[in-house]
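Hi,

I'm pasting everything inline rather than attaching a file, because the server keeps stripping attachments. The sequence lines come first, and each chain or strand is labelled.
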Amino acid sequence: MRTDRDGLPLEVDRTTSHAGDGGVLSPTSQEQIVFTPPIDIFERPDGLVLLADLPGVTLETLELQVQDNRLTLYGQVQSTWLEGVTLLHQEYPVGHFLRSFILSDEVDHERITAKLAHGVLEVFLPRATKAIPRKIEVKSD
Amino acid sequence: MAIFRWGNAWQAVGDFEQEVDHLLASVLQGLRVVRQYPAVNLYDLPDQLLLTAELPGIRLEELDISVSEGSLTLKGRHIGPENVPDEVFRRQERPRGKWQRILKLPEGIREDEVSAQFANGVLLIRLPKHPPKPVRQIAVTAVADGVSARDGHQEMIATPARRIVSEQGSAAMTQPPLAQGGSHAD
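And the predicted assembly:
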């Protein structure tokens, strides 16, 4: 099993975790930038909790998916209201959020749950219950 | 540039190294450029200015916004998840702690009508503008030409005109003596 130094059954995927690398997926709109959201990960006895800051993202514009062993979050920010509005001063650019993670076998992929509140996504990654070894009875002839 | 190396070719650790580089780089960047928190954007609408700031996960009871004498003060605190000791954190990138920012408002903002709303982690402050001082229009009344000759300002000119007439009259009055004189000369 691949784990990082902390024995964390979750890896931050290199292909999408560096906003500055330009390796991010090209967004649908040419002008929208895609950012890597900051995350927190902490352990609970029954699994891991991942928190991601996604300001401006709503349930309708959030996509969270697990494919094979990759967990991807993609949150879009609606900025249609900015059309025709004059920007006087800008300190932060508005854009979408994308980040992906590699899950190990220690995470039960089927029971992952998530909720979104006040621009923060909370994903619960339950620890997979260890498979109980099945005893195979060996009969003698 | 590699700042941190585990010296191990193991793939998982390789990823981790990159991540550490990235974090260190962002810390160094943060030291070089002192950035105010929270970052704000300001938009202009005909009747108001809109100030926005990204404050994901902030609790409303931890947010304090006040306006006084041309300045807007934003104060708050990002608290981490409750009852989670620091040692169980495996990664911590989200901002934590107290912050305060004072912004000078532009001229012409109706301070008593400033309002704020918080949705999806984005704070939006409405700064209504004072309506521009009303321009008093002076109505111009159109009147017929014939009337204007006798009406209004015509009165002003008419008075000295009458005086001229009366002078002429007095001149006419002096005529008789001249005439008399004339007759006298006769």
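The longest strand of chain B covers residues 71-78.

If the labels don't parse on your end, tell me and I'll reformat.
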